[in-house]
Amino acid sequence: MTHNFEYAERYLKAIANGQIPLIGLLGPAQRKDRLLQNLGSEAVQIAARVFGPVGLDIGAETTEEIALAIMAGIHAELSGRRGQQLSVKSSSDLYELELTH
């Protein structure tokens, strides 16, 4: 996290060609959009891997809650999951099972 926009832009340029699967940004989505716009052609290489604001929407307010939301979001993304309630997944799995049988 950097509060300096120019630093954030330099960091993104430095890692644009790397293999980092998930790059999280704190702050509003407009900040992410502006950073990507400023990257120009390098944005194509990195845009799908940049998440901002980073984390799952769990209503986080405190520092600890925000950290939990970020870690949960990272884990969900790297596991190829959406980060929904397990009961929702179970219900949809049962529904799909009923449709196929």
Automatic annotation (TrEMBL):
Residues 1-74 form the XdhC Rossmann domain. It holds the Pfam family XdhC_C. InterPro entries: MoCofactor_Util/Proc (IPR052698), XdhC_Rossmann_dom (IPR027051). Gene3D superfamilies: NAD(P)-binding Rossmann-like Domain. PANTHER family: ALDEHYDE OXIDOREDUCTASE MOLYBDENUM COFACTOR ASSEMBLY PROTEIN, XANTHINE DEHYDROGENASE SUBUNIT A-RELATED. This is XdhC Rossmann domain-containing protein.
